[in-house]
Every structure is written in C-alpha cells, then in structure tokens.
C-alpha cells in the first residue's frame, strides 16, 4: 500500500473503534476542488459516527433485589375538595319569578388506608408518593345535589404502621385483618343559593365554593406479622430451613448474604404428623454480623420485622469456627437494636450436624445449652423441632389471652361539645405599618366559612361581615383600634375592615 493512501497501519484500538485520523484519505493530487475535500471530510465524520454507534457498549439495566422489597415509604395524601354550590334560578314558562333553585354540591372523597392480606411489602407503592382523592360533584339547577366523591383506598400489608412525616407520632397500627384508618378527610361541598333564601332576601345571587380536603404527609412502616422468626449469622442455614419446613422458596447459595430481604412462609403441621390447625407463620430474617448496629453488612434495617414475632428460632452453624461466639454476637446485636428483643423467648437450634461426629454434637449442644440439633439438608431432627415450636406458641398465646382477660375493657368515646367552645375566634397578632393595621384572626368555623366564600362576590362579602357582627369579632376589632382601611387576615385571605 502506498504511504498516505488508504488506511495507514495502526495499533489495535479499544472496542474496535477507529480513530478518525486512520480513516481512508484520498491521495494527494486527486482533490481537484475545495468542495470535494469538504465532502470527503463530511463522509469521514459520518463513517466515524456510525462505527462509534455500533461499537458503543450499552450498560446493563441491573435490578437491585433490595429495591423489590419496600418496608418504609413516605407519601403525601390529599383529600378530595368539595364541589361548588350552584347559583341558579327557576326559569319555566308561566312561572314568573321562580326563585332560587341552586343545588348543594357533593363532599370530597376521604383517603383511607386499609389492610390487604394478599400484600407482603409496600413495593406496589414504590413509584407513587402523592395520593389524591376525587373532588365532589358540583351542585346543579332544579335543586339537584352534586354527587359525593368515592373514597380513595390505599391498600397496605398486614402489620403496617402509619406515622406522621417525621415519625414522631403514631397514627395507627394496622395489625388486624379488618383494620383501616382515615388519614385525610374530604372537603365539605358548598351550599347552593337556594339555601340562603330568606323572607327579606328572596333572590340570593351567592353560593358557597367547595372546601379543600385535608393534606398531610405520612410515613408507612411495615413490620411483618409472623409467629416465629429465624435468626442467625449469614450462611447458618436459615433459608434452607424455611424452604424445607414451609411453602417459602428463598434463594439458596453457598455464599454470605444470599438472602437480602425477609421471607415469609406458612408451616403446615399436618406435613409433620400434627394438626393443620396448629400451622404457623415463620419469617427468615437476613443474616446479621458483628457491627450491624454501626451499619455493617445489611445493618439493622430488617430487625424490626421480628419485633412482632412471638418466638425466635436462633440457628447456630455447627461448622463455624466458634459457634458459642457466633451465638453471643447475635444476642449482642439484638440488644443494641432493642432491649426487649434480647429478652424475647427463643429456641436455640444447632444446624448442619451432618458435618460433625456424634461426640462433637453432644459437646456443642452442652456448651450452647441448645434445645435441638438438626440438619436442614438431610431433614434430621426437624419433626421434634416443629412440635416444640407449636408447643411454645400455644403457651405464649394462652398467657397473652389470660393477660388480656384480666384487663378491663375500656372504649374511648369521643364526645363533641360545640356548645362549650366559647372561643369562636382568636386575634393572634396585630401588625402595624405606616398606613394601616393588619389583624390576624383564627377560629375553626370562621376559617371554614372564609375558605368557602367567594369574596369577589358582593353578597359573599356581606355574609362575612354579618358573621363578624354575629360572633362579636366586629366589636372586638373596634376595641383593638381597627379603622376603615385596615385589613383582617383569616386563613390566608384578606378582608377589608368596615366600621
């Protein structure tokens, strides 16, 4: 090949991408015009772009298994706003001056959090953080009432706890199958103009607007509801055990932290020669290591799931270099997380006895004061363990029932006493400028009325002034030095003071 003609020899380039300088260049003397040189350069750039596009390695979209399991989620809930009342007058042939016939509006929908036993995690909500209920239907003419909006139901797994945004207050613990809680009330629908008709005001040209729904931010935290929790160091055989005794099918492999999320399974005791009525739910908790409280390994993020368990099965790996030390490590980490977890009743089980001789098994059992020795792989010793778990669970449930029967039943009854609420309004603050004063006033009913009143409507504004007179606010404002031109601020709305 003639030097300078065609492709010059070059070193191998990464990903097989050619350097633009190495692409074919026309021999000197053949470029007759500047235009042909430009065309060749453009062609060279296009070829390079095509080669780069083909050779570029696209990154793999790897799904993190931990993201599939969601046990804590922050959401914002917005109750549905109430519909607007209708301002309408009856217009019918041969019926002069039919009068107002505007109907009331419907209420906005509530937001309800409800238990769904078919769910195990909060992962179905992972890509949604804002939940808004429907708005109520507007009122119509001929005194037709607007439709009430349907409630928005958010389904969560059994064992979900509802907190406020910063988790400083618990709103509800949904620990039973039929549990549900209303977390955001829908707004009240506005009244139509037919509601404001009086003997002295027979043609009102005013209707209420809908009240906005409640808005709040919540934190949902899931604590799995299981009768038995299996704990132990990584690779102690927890996943193998739960796969053998229950219907759970976790991932099993010969390396640490195979289980990244808790697994739930139902143990059918009829499989072991017992009664099907004695079946129980078991949870496999991902392995802990020393220093988990400081964030090592998987940390303490899944330990909250065993706080509801009635009984712990502490699995110790018989092939571990120091089984006694491994047992102490887990107990130490439990106490660091929660002192009550360290005191929870447990059954100590030595696993992988198929790797030891009979003398070593007896010695290890005596050292750890273990209750059972098993081999989850060969199924040895599983039947006595299952019956012991069933026996312990029955004792715990019986003790809890006895304690519950001894406690007197007290049901809190909410008593509404609006007639005792003498503070219809409170003047919180007075701000004074060179030209006017601003009076900041609060009051539940007063704020609701201001929100649902269109202040751009002359009759709506007159209604507010009548309410001032009725509640005594007008008189109190005059005592505080309010004059014509001053401002009354109620619920972010400004009303000019009228003497």
CATH superfamily of the largest domain: P-loop containing nucleotide triphosphate hydrolases
Q: CATH topology of the largest domain, which one? A: Rossmann fold
Q: Provide the gyration radius in Å.
A: 37 Å
Widest β-sheet, arrangement of strands: 10-11-9-12-13-14
- Please tally the β strands and state the result: 18
The average pLDDT value, as a whole number, equals: 80
Can you tell me about this structure?
The chain has four domains: about 15-55; about 65-220, Spo0b-associated Gtp-binding Protein, Chain: A (Distorted Sandwich); about 230-405, P-loop containing nucleotide triphosphate hydrolases (Rossmann fold, 3-Layer(aba) Sandwich), CATH 3.40.50; about 420-495, GTP-binding protein OBG, C-terminal domain (GMP Synthetase, Chain A, domain 3), CATH 3.30.300.350. Residues about 1-25 and about 55-65 have low confidence and may be disordered. Strand 13, helix 5 and strand 14 (about 370-375) form a beta-alpha-beta unit. It has helices at about 35-55, 240-245, 325-335, 340-345, 360-370, 380-405, 445-450, 460-470, 475-480, and strands spanning about 70-80, 110-115, 130, 150-155, 160-165, 170-175, 180-185, 215-220, 230, 265, 280-285, 310-315, 345-350, 370-375, 425-430, 435-440, 485-490, 495. Helices cover about 25% and strands about 20% of the residues. By secondary structure, it is of the alpha/beta class. It is elongated.
């Amino acid at each position: 090949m003639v030097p300078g003609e065609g492709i010059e020899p070059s070193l191998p380039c990464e990903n097989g991408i050619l350097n633009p300088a190495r692409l074919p260049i026309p021999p000197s003397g053949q470029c007759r015009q500047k235009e042909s040189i430009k065309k060749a350069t453009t062609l060279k750039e296009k070829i390079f772009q095509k080669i780069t596009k083909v050779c570029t390695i696209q990154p793999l979209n790897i799904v993190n298994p931990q993201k599939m399991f969601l046990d804590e989620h922050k959401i914002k809930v917005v109750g549905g706003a109430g519909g607007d009342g209708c301002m309408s007058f009856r217009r019918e042939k041969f019926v002069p001056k039919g009068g107002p016939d505007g109907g009331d509006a419907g209420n906005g929908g509530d937001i309800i959090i409800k238990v769904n036993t078919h769910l195990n995690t909060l992962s179905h909500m992972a890509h949604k953080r804002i939940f808004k209920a429907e708005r109520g239907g507007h009122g119509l003419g001929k005194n037709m009432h607007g439709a009430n909006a349907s409630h928005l139901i958010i389904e969560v797994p059994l064992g979900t706890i509802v907190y406020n945004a910063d988790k400083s207050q618990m709103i509800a613990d949904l620990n039973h199958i039929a549990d549900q809680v209303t977390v955001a009330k829908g707004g009240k629908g506005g009244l139509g103009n037919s509601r404001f008709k009086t003997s002295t005001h027979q043609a009102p040209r005013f209707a209420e607007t809908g009240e906005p729904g409640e808005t709040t931010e919540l934190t949902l935290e899931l604590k799995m509801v299981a009768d038995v929790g299996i704990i132990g160091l990584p690779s102690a055989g927890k996943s193998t055990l739960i796969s053998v005794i229950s219907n759970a099918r976790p991932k099993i492999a010969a390396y640490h932290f195979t289980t990244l999320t808790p697994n739930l399974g139902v143990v059918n005791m009829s499989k072991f020669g017992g009664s099907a009525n004695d079946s129980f739910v078991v949870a496999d908790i991902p392995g802990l290591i020393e220093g988990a409280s400081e964030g090592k390994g998987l940390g303490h993020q899944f330990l909250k799931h065993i706080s509801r368990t009635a009984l712990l099965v502490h699995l110790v790996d018989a092939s571990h270099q120091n089984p006694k030390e491994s047992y102490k490590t887990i107990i130490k980490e439990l106490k660091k997380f929660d002192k009550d977890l360290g005191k929870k009743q447990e059954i100590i089980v030595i696993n992988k006895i198929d790797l030891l001789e009979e003398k070593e098994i007896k010695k290890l059992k005596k050292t750890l004061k273990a209750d059972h020795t098993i081999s989850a792989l060969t199924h040895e010793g599983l039947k006595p363990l299952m019956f012991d778990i069933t026996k312990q669970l029955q004792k715990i449930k019986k003790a809890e029932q006895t304690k519950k029967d001894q406690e007197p039943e007290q049901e809190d009854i909410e008593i509404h006493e609006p007639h005792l609420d003498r503070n219809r309004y409170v003047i919180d603050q007075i701000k004074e400028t060179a030209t006017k004063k601003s009076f900041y006033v609060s009051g539940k009913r007063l704020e609701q009325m201001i929100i649902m009143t269109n202040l751009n409507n002359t009759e709506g504004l007159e209604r507010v002034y009548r309410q001032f007179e009725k509640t005594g606010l007008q008189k109190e404002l005059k005592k505080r030095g309010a004059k014509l031109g001053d401002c009354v601020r109620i619920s972010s709305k400004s009303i000019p003071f009228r003497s």
